Amino acid sequence: MDDATQPKLSRIQQRNRTRITDAALEIFSQHGFRGATLDQIAGEAGLSKPNLLYYFDSKEAIHVDVLNRLMETWLAPLEAIDPQGEPREELLRYIRRKLEMAFEFPRESRLFANEIVQGAPRMGPHLETGLKPLFEEKAALIQSWIDAGRLPPLDPRHLILSIWATTQHYADFEAQTRVLLEGSDVQQSAWAHLEALYARMLSC
Fold first, then answer.
1. How many Å apart are CA 124 and CA 142, to the nearest integer?
2. Do 181 and 141 share a domain, yes or no?
3. 28 near 63, Cβ under 8 Å?
4. Among residues 50, 87, 103, 202, which one has the fewest Cβ atoms lying within 10 Å of its Cβ?
5. How far apart are CA 102 and CA 110, in angstroms?
6. In this predicted structure, what is the pLDDT of residue 95?
7. Host domain of residue 83
């Protein structure tokens, strides 16, 4: 059942629904949509499969719910870029928050990456109606800062994409990063590097 048609849930029902989505995040981030099963999700949630199906009628319904919630969290830092702020500071703040999220929410990042790698079969509409307009809005804002001479001449779209690539790498390839940077404070050293890199890149 979807959120639009289901009746208001009791506190216990809300707690169980949260248990299911938290468990699904863990299973989907490990196995992807195709590799995950309802039995795995139910087991991770500590619920029976019939109990799980009371709240969600299919694996796809759970996956879509988790992805929808993820999109809200994932887009918040981009939305928070302030048109009235100082451009360089706004972008460095955005980069720092994206890096923090890579370490705070590695499962969410991997789940999103898996969905995109598979061709975004369940997220396609949200990319068109949610992500794309926001992406274009912020790219236009950055371009206005460039046109005003407040940032160097960069392609704002590729700048945003490069920020995503350099920050989310630490979540999506966590196992590799942990081996390659063994013994270091990865988050702190990553921020020191990215701050210096983008500070130079964004200097007029």
1. 25
2. yes
3. yes
4. 50
5. 9
6. 97
7. 68-201
